[in-house]
Amino acid sequence: MAESKNYIPALKYDWLTQVYDHVLQFTMPEKKFKIALIDQMGIQPGNRVLDFGCGSLTLSIMAAQTHPHAEFHGVDIDDKILSIAKEKLKDTEVNIHIQNYDGGRLPYPDGHFSKIMSSLVFHHLTLQQKYAALDEMHRVLKPGGELHIADFGKPSNVFQRIGFYTIQCLDGFETTRDSVKYLLPTAMRDSGFAQVEEVNYFNTIVGTVRLLGGIKQNGVV
After folding, report:
1. What is the pTM of this model?
2. Residue 55, by phi and psi: left (phi above 0), alpha (psi -120 to 50) or beta?
3. Which residue, of 37, 39, 40, 178, has the fewest CB within 10 Å?
4. 3-state SS record for 136-175
């Protein structure tokens, strides 16, 4: 997602993209952890919010419906899932600005967003891609802006570890190995984010989803 269009689709294979939402609903408490992610963000009226790897827009739509006086943007590298997102958006009364990008530089100026959110994206990225994506998020955030991520992290017990093998077999071990090692908080700090902490976690039948938050310090470009 951060190096040209070399990426893993939402469910690895293009033909599975159409059923992505249904798979999430079956395998994990998607609504529960996304509500928790939105709550931890503390979105305020007038905030400009980016959904990085917005996928089918479930998270963005939920956030926009809860916070109608904020401005929402979604960006994704996958044309097919964005077409699903656009169809889903037609059935709502919210306005979300969607853009496709090539996986490199985000199509926004420096310091453009108040907050960035991302759900179940980083376990698709290699460690190099994780760092490149975080660097770009840091760039497009305003000083004092916040990054909030929900993604698979260190399994909370042996059963969660066994369940996560399903994700690893589907998405590949190269990218998901970082989740087991829980390298994302370190990568966030290395990319310039401060006050990086785990806010919450949720056990699912396919692994432990951990919610992280971090801040771009004032005065940091």
Report:
1. 0.88
2. left
3. 39
4. HHHHHEEEEEEEEEEEECCCCCHHHHHHHHHHHHHHCHHH
